[in-house]
Amino acid sequence: MSRWDRFTDTFFNTKVMARYLPDILSGVVVTIELAVLVVVTGILAGLALALLRSLAIRPLNWLIVGVVDVFRSLPPLVVIVLIYFGLPSIDVSPSGFVSTWLALGLVLMAFSEEIFWAGITSVAKGQWEAARSTGLSFGQTLLHVVLPQALRLTIPPLTNRTIAITKGTALGTVVAVTEILGQASSAMSNSYNPSPLMLGAAAYVVLFFPVVVAGRWVETRFAWKR
User: Fold this and answer.
1) What does the mean pLDDT of the chain come to?
2) Is residue 157 part of a domain?
3) What's the structural domain count of the chain?
4) pTM, to two decimals
5) How far apart are the first and last CA of the chain?
6) Which whole-number Å values give the CA distances from 144 to 82, 131, 218, in the listed order?
7) Which one of 26, 76, 154, 222 is most buried, counting C-beta atoms within 10 A?
């Protein structure tokens, strides 16, 4: 057997890949479900915190900034472990899936809050004053005048951060989540061959490459024209 044959037999064994393909596909479904939940909850929670912060209630702002800074500082894996192994001490026992969802959602919430807040504060003060002079309330000005401008500014950085964090779904394998990497690792252990891991890597490329391309299009589409 030549070196190339040994390489392909080790990393691209078609028989092993075919045997574990259904497991990898089931992992793809779990990864998609987890990623969608993380994106929806993380972005909505981050937007809510940014809107609350705009009310300029000092104690509330201190609390928001503190929470956001903590979750921006902690590695996502640490947050997953703290939730999965820490909450049972207070009689709350989330599954690995829920723990990963909450952890990545909280991390995305922290980063998205800062991004939304930067977008809100970047809107010129004159926009606020002009809207208020027409009789709009603070809430109406924020929702109908400031927020639409801020959202357009936040789309490029928010897209990049969202993609980076959703790829962290692979960390769920630490708490036995059967997503792509978890299934691939299990298959590799059972087959004594790393080919399932290559299959899992291919699944990540197929799954996230269109998302990256779509993110690049969104950045170009919503970027301010110079």
Assistant:
1) 86
2) yes
3) 1
4) 0.86
5) 59
6) 39, 9, 22
7) 154
Position 223 confidence tier, pLDDT thresholds 50, 70, 90: low
Distance, CA of 59 to CA of 70 (rounded, Å): 17
Model pLDDT, residue 20: 86
Give 98-137 pLDDT, tens digit per residue.
999 999 999 999 999 999 998 888 888 888 878 888 888 8
> Considering the domain boundaries, does residue 215 fall inside one?
no
CATH code of the domain containing 87: 1.10.3720.10
What is the distance between the alpha carbons of residues 120 and 123, in angstroms, rounded to a whole number? 6
In a domain, 17, yes or no: no
